[in-house]
Design goal:
By secondary structure, the chain is α/β, with parallel strands linked by helices. Among the domains are: about 55 residues, Ubiquitin-like (UB roll), CATH 3.10.20.600; about 60 residues, DNA polymerase, domain 1, CATH 1.10.150. The chain has six helices and five strands. A three-stranded mixed sheet has the order 2-1-3, covered by helices on one side. Strands 4-5 form a two-stranded parallel sheet. The longest helix is centred in the last third of the chain and has 14 residues. The termini are far apart.
Length: about 210
């Protein structure tokens, strides 16, 4: 009888709460994505992410990114830096001028119907006229395998560093610095076209030697 009363009392006892284990936050890694990506910066990714995930987190590569030199499948660790390199574009010299090349001044005079330059004194048979020298851009040699070319950071370089670039003189270097101070850092290399004196042709020659950070 006593045993029955004990069993009845236990049956009516309020059940004890069962603790539930709450899952913790998934592990994460912080990586720095730099170079030829749309939006460089610091990104937080799930643990186990790959280099490709970090590039996509930075809004993808730019048109100048050389993904062939990046291991997209490499795993990421906390504190890693993912640097997407730029495509190296060697500059080739222009071909020599063809025979009968006419200078800019002579073409303008002929188009206006004006007589050409006065002939020189008759000193015998005229020698064949050589074309004017063609100014060719400097050839930028490709770096040896495994090495990267020396580049200039256009967002931190002063005028003296910018003058070492081919085609950049003191006036143009000062304009780049003044434009950067007035309107802020360059977000893309194409923004340098806003600087007076920098055209698409000069920018294409300088792109292998420039960086944004």
């Amino acid at each position: 009888m006593v045993l029955g009363l004990v069993l009845i009392g236990r049956a009516h006892r309020a059940p004890q709460p069962v603790p539930l284990a709450t899952p913790g936050a998934p592990p994460q890694v912080q990586v720095h994505v730099a170079g030829e990506v749309v939006w460089p910066g610091l990104y937080v990714l799930p643990a186990g992410s790959r280099v490709q995930d970090a590039i996509f987190a930075a809004h993808g590569p730019t048109p100048m990114a050389d993904l062939g030199r990046v291991s997209l499948a490499a795993p990421l660790r906390d504190g890693d830096r993912v640097l997407v390199p730029r495509i190296i574009q060697p500059t080739f010299p222009l071909p020599p001028a063809p025979p009968g090349y006419m200078g800019t001044r002579e073409r303008a005079m002929r188009a206006a119907g004006l007589p050409g330059p006065a002939p020189s004194a008759d000193l015998g048979p005229a020698a064949p006229r050589s074309p004017p020298p063609v100014r060719t851009p400097p050839v930028i040699p490709a770096p040896p395998a495994g090495e990267t070319p020396q580049t200039v950071n256009v967002n931190t370089a002063d005028a003296a560093e910018l003058e070492r670039l081919p085609g950049i003189g003191p006036v143009l270097a000062r304009r780049i610095v003044e434009h950067r101070e007035a309107k802020g850092l360059f977000r893309r290399l194409e923004d340098m076209l806003e600087v007076e004196g920098i055209g698409p042709r000069l920018l294409r020659r300088l792109q292998p030697l420039l960086r944004l950070e």
